[in-house]
Amino acid sequence: MNIAIIGCGDVGRCYAAALSQAGHQITGVCDSNPGRGLEAYANEIGALLHSSSGPWLAQVDLVISAVFGGVALDVARQSLPDMRKGAIYADFTTGNPGDLRASGELAAAAGVKYADVAITGAIGLGGARTPLLCAGDAADELIEIMRAVGAPSRKVGAAAGDAVALKLLRSVFTKGLEALAVECLMAAEQRGLRQELYEVLSDIDQSPIRSFMETVVTTHVRHAGRRLKEVQEARAQLRQDGIQPLALDGVMALFERTSGSIAADPLLEEPTIQNSLDWLFEQQKNNS
Amino acid sequence: MNIAIIGCGDVGRCYAAALSQAGHQITGVCDSNPGRGLEAYANEIGALLHSSSGPWLAQVDLVISAVFGGVALDVARQSLPDMRKGAIYADFTTGNPGDLRASGELAAAAGVKYADVAITGAIGLGGARTPLLCAGDAADELIEIMRAVGAPSRKVGAAAGDAVALKLLRSVFTKGLEALAVECLMAAEQRGLRQELYEVLSDIDQSPIRSFMETVVTTHVRHAGRRLKEVQEARAQLRQDGIQPLALDGVMALFERTSGSIAADPLLEEPTIQNSLDWLFEQQKNNS
């Protein structure tokens, strides 16, 4: 396959190398601000170096955009008209989901197949083996290509933009867990209870994350008030031990909000995940 | 065993009933503000009703304190002198760890065995089968008694107060997860991606919570800056979708703080869980 890489930072170079090693031809690399290093790199992989998109894109079967997210849509808008119909434009940027959806629509209008690709990990650590999420009409084809270079790739969502949207939703949870782990392990270490905390938390391992999340949300809408007291006590203990909680302050604010909503307008039915979420949306509307 | 219950709210009554059914004799119940209902209840279980501690406590082998946490230490101070040496004082309150440790020391001075007991769940849902954490020199004996009435009970920590301290540390994590689940599932539902989010998060099920926590903390001290950008993007997406994040704001504040610390005073060694926590403590000291 003839491939062009637009944007030659860490991401662009990582996939250029992996695809090249897998037998694909990197025919062109493009960077708006190419330095000496990039020139040498292009030579090394037998690619022509460009500083902008142009008719040279007509020769390629796959364009990989790895520019900064902020210019994802601009780059797509400039590049798509030069591509041949039926080729694939794969957007590896962390552009916002709206821009990527718009890019997908431009691609469709230009007869180009499109995939938005979210890299769910650090390229610097996992290289081309970092897991990918793909959405858009070229998702299946792109997944086949990327799996062949060792990237665990999964199709998600219905439309272009869904992959990056899911990546960010995943981030809410995983980065939240990270922040909680920092505060929690600091506080446990301070009391000499870190090993015991692991044991006391190990029951979390017993239930899949999906049922855990649904259980806590359906009980949150009933018991946020009582649980708020526990959060307040936990926060008091951390502060007393000299830990300055930040993540926990956000957690407490959420419990306070739900607790107020329960007092003003309780959910009267038996909570299910669906009516719990509906109630939370309704409360948010009332509060805004 | 002859047992006294001090504080006859939901917790006191729950364990009075369970212990009574298991063949123990509840010889006395004590509440500073006993109502008609409590009088009937005491009759029903064959217990004498008291409005304060006193010499009647000398007859019992086990005192269960289930008063409000704020008066835990006062009640222990009043009750211990009346108890016989070698009896057990079990503190089921959610008093703060310092008060419970002080109670344990008073008990030791009075020749009474002491356990602090943390109820890690809702009595209203699980009744006497709610899991318990126990610390203090009477922990082993109390665990035997409580297991016999169906309560999964576990010894934790080294000193009185450690059980409730661990319960609150556990709360930091579990209530944090709850808040994150609320925001995350609302945001996913809003985009019609809830089912797919579960799948994208399911890799979390693959690693035990202990190694997950240690991994994110040891990478946090290196990568908080890059990850902060992802948190900011995730937050922007939520707000754009009409979700008002609160927990995520706290998470972002923590990433901002660590990110600033990394810029000013990076951890130069290869991060381990120990030097990562040490570095985090050091940074907190510098910032305070």
Write the layout of secondary structure elements.
The structure is a homodimer of 288-residue chains.
Chain A: E1 2-6, H1 10-21, E2 25-30, H2 36-44, E3 48-50, E4 62-65, H3 72-79, E5 88-91, H4 97-110, E6 113-119, H5 123-126, E7 132-135, H6 139-148, E8 153-155, H7 162-190, H8 194-201, H9 209-240, H10 247-264, H11 273-287
Parallel strand pairs in A: 1-2, 1-4, 2-3, 4-5, 5-6, 7-8
Antiparallel strand pairs in A: 6-7
Strand content of chain A: 5-15%
What share of the residues of chain A lie within helices?
55-70%
Low-confidence stretches of chain A: none
SS element count, helices of chain A: 11
What kind of oligomer do you see? Answer: homodimer
Features:
288 residues, 3-hydroxyisobutyrate dehydrogenase-like beta-hydroxyacid dehydrogenase (chains A, B), 6PGD_dom2 (chains A, B), HIBADH-related (chains A, B), homodimer, 55% helix, alpha/beta, oxidoreductase activity (chains A, B), 8-stranded mixed sheet, Rossmann fold
Structure described in brief:
Two copies of one chain form a homodimer. Chain A is of the alpha/beta class and 288 residues long. The first copy, chain A, contains eleven helices and eight strands.
Explain the overall architecture.
The structure is a homodimer of 288-residue chains. With 288 residues, chain A is α/β, with parallel strands linked by helices. Helices cover 55% and strands 12% of the residues of chain A. The first copy, chain A, folds into 2 domains: 2-165, Rossmann fold, CATH 3.40.50.720; 207-287, no CATH class. Chain A has an 8-stranded mixed β-sheet, sandwiched between helices. In chain A, α3 runs parallel beside α4 (97-110), α9 (209-240) crosses α10 (247-264) and α9 (209-240) crosses α11. The longest helix of chain A is centred in the C-terminal third of the chain and has 32 residues, at 209-240. Chain A starts with a strand and ends with a helix. The mean pLDDT of chain A is 94. Chains A and B meet through α7, α8, α9, α10 and α11 of A and α7, α8, α9, α10 and α11 of B.
